[in-house]
Design goal:
This protein is an alpha+beta fold and 90 residues long. 33% of the residues lie in helices and 13% in strands. It is built from 3 helices and 4 strands, in the order H-H-E-E-E-E-H. The chain has helices spanning 2-6, 11-28, 77-83; strands at residues 33-35, 44-46, 53-55, 62-64. The chain has a two-stranded antiparallel ribbon with strand order 1-2. The chain has a two-stranded antiparallel ribbon with strand order 3-4.
Length: 90
């Protein structure tokens, strides 16, 4: 079907169509596929249920797959989120 579309779209629109199609594919497969959560990193990866840590080979950052933030070894996601809240006592 992309070949059918390419007959009617100029090359710059074809590129946008391909990007959109790929983004939708990743979005529709979010149970085992995701984008690296690092801002600006366009790396897409697959993961299995139960995986908790992701080491991005593109931006070299390590993330928690549960809460999509920097990996917090030794803390649960809840413990990590609580430890990141600062108040006037800190």
């Amino acid at each position: 079907i992309p070949s059918d579309v390419s007959e009617y779209l100029p090359p710059d629109y074809m590129h946008k169509f391909e990007d959109y199609s790929f983004n939708k594919f990743v979005e529709m497969h979010n149970e085992d596929m995701s984008w690296c959560p690092s801002a600006g990193c366009q790396y897409v990866f697959t993961f299995e249920k139960g995986d908790t840590e992701f080491n991005c080979p593109n931006c070299h950052k390590v993330y928690c797959l549960q809460c999509k933030v920097e990996f917090h070894k030794g803390q649960s996601c809840k413990e990590y989120s609580i430890s990141r809240v600062f108040d006037k006592n800190d």
